[in-house]
Structure formats: structure tokens, C-alpha cells
Specification:
Structural class: alpha+beta
CATH superfamily: Electron Transport, Fmn-binding Protein, Chain A
Number of helices: 4
CATH architecture: Roll
Oligomer: single chain
Distance between the termini: 20 Å
Shape: globular
Number of domains: 1
CATH class: Mainly Beta
Number of strands: 8
Radius of gyration: 16 Å
Strand content: 35-45%
Amino acid sequence: MRRTDRQRDAAFAWEVFDRAPYAVLSVRDGEGGYGIPVSPARVGETIYFHSAPAGKKLDCLRRWPEATLTAAEVLGPERFSVRYRSAVACGRVIPVEDPAEKLEALRAITRQHCPQDLPDFDAYAPPILKSTFVWRMEVSEITGKERTPG
């Protein structure tokens, strides 16, 4: 990281992922790169997100499972700049095959992004398990960065 004065530790980076409303997944696509917003949730030091069972994201990840996930939180403007917190996680993304892990990942995603629906989760989730693809990012590196007033 060029601006080491803005670098933060892994605990800070995990917190950014916990607070971010979405993140951008960056993968190879055979012609360069492909980035797509996802709604991640973490369990411990594993990040989960979901997708449809077909599409470009799925095709890319099956062929090139190494990916980067970036989350940012804008804290507000500052004269000719912006205060922010960001995190970048790098790792291998693999499909979740185990039904119990898949269910818990979807529960974590629901808790993160639509907690108001948690009371209905147990009735809603089982019927969609077959039509929803869940991915697990095994994080090998995570970094955080923050621009504070100054």
C-alpha cells in the first residue's frame, strides 16, 4: 500500500466488511477483468455471497477462482477530498456444496442485509436452496485503509 499512513489492521478491515451495504467482486474473465456488486456477509474470517445458478460471475469463478472483494464506506466530504474507510480481501472463491453450510451462509447474508426478514427465514430459505448458488471466499489476505480528517 502506497499510503502507509492510511493503512489499518485486519480487525479494522473486517469491520468495514461488516458495515458495508455491498462490495465489488473482481475476477478474471478471459479478456481482462470483471467486477460485479455482491451482498457479502462474513462468518469468522470467511466471506459468503450468493448468485444465480448460471451467469458470467459463475462462469468466471469456476474457471478462475482467485478473486478480490472490495468494500468502502464514505464518511463524508472534506475540502476537495472525501473521508472514507475501505477494505480489500483477496482469496479463493469456491462454491458451497454442503446444505447446512449453505443454509447458514444464507442466514448470515439475511442477517447482514435484511435483518427484518430473519423471523421468516426458516420458512423462506429451504425451498430456494436448490435455485440459489452460494460462494465462500477463503480469505488469504485482507487490508484496510482510512482517510480521516486532516
